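Suppose a classmate hands you a notebook page containing two proteins, each written out with its sequence and a corresponding row of structure tokens. How would you begin to make sense of it? This section walks through that situation. The first entry is reproduced here exactly as it would appear on such a page.
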Amino acid sequence: MRMKPLFIAASLTLAAALVGCTSDGTFKMFSSDYGARADAGYQLPAVPIYKVDKKYHRQVVRYDTDEKPGTIIVDTANKFLYFVLPEGKAVRYGIGVGREGFEWRGTARVAMKREWPTWTPPSAMIGRQPELAKWRGGMPPGLTNPLGARALYLFNKGGDSGYRLHGTPEWFSIGKAMSSGCIRLMNQDIIDLYDRADTGAKVIVL
């Protein structure tokens, strides 16, 4: 007996639900995880996540790679960061990347992790923006600090690369090229990544 198209469609929908994966390869969305929260003595404000394109919301997706779980892969062209999970999955985060002239590619490792880090602008940045000279000795942690709630410090064979994976109070910059080369995530996302990533983790920037 020939099955009706409606029956076939219903069967496919049920099958997708049973394996927990939608037709676009998403296993789980975390759109409700961007509310206000207390964190290490700071009151982190909510992100108006409805204003952020849904593709940049944190989600578990299908992701095939030969890299081992725990590896971080940064897709600068599509503004995504992937934290590799077992079984062909990854946590995908929306990111902001370096503006034109500040892009970079390569492989590094997470050498240090810091909660509510101090931000010290590089001398080259102070040269471009003299008003930052007041922070030459470091800008204290806080809700307006450019590094946000967490920072992962990237080192390569030459030592400190100068680049970071970090949070940002500027949630509206996610999906855009606005930084001086660092990879920025919404604060709620960098907290999640910070808790998942180990010191020494491999980071690949495509």
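The notebook's second entry, a different protein, reads as follows.
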Amino acid sequence: MLLVSKAGIVDAERIKVKIFPGLERTPMLKVNGIVVHQTNSSTSGSTFAHYQSAGAHGAHFLIDKDGTIYQTASVYKRTNHVGWLKSRCLETRKCAPAEFRDAQKIKGIKKLSAHEYKKEPLVRYPGNNDSIGIEIVGREIGKVEGYETVNEAQNGSLRWLVRELVETLGVSMREVHRHPEISYKKPSEARSAKWQD
């Protein structure tokens, strides 16, 4: 279990604290999920440079190529890391028939996302307001090749971090998702990320 300060900063030997206040938005009252991303950059430095720009989007943690884990935002603050939500009902087909039909009638990803964000947590996918984001350094190699393979050092750190966050924040392992599963991202993003043995 992680030791977390009142400000949402994690105190752990494996985590280097490098907070970017510009990533932090409003308070996050409850964490219902974890979303795993890839940076589409080849170094942590280029990601950190982006995090310093005005209005930057980013996640709460970043895992470098050597497995180093950085905390980049408070776990008690919302960050913009998810984007437009997919419909959990449409994606999983595990919902009432009437709900499925209603979701099918909504045209456009912005409207569908707004519809999803109005739903209770766990009925919808976790979004910006209730999820922790973990970025893994790795760029998109090409349209066909997709994103770089997440290496073993990164996956080892990801497994440890997810396990600790799940225990500390009371998140279900079923609510840990790759970014493209829940939002409109390239399917190869974080495809090779492994957080379970």
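A careful reader of the second entry would note: The first strand starts at residue 3 and ends at 4.
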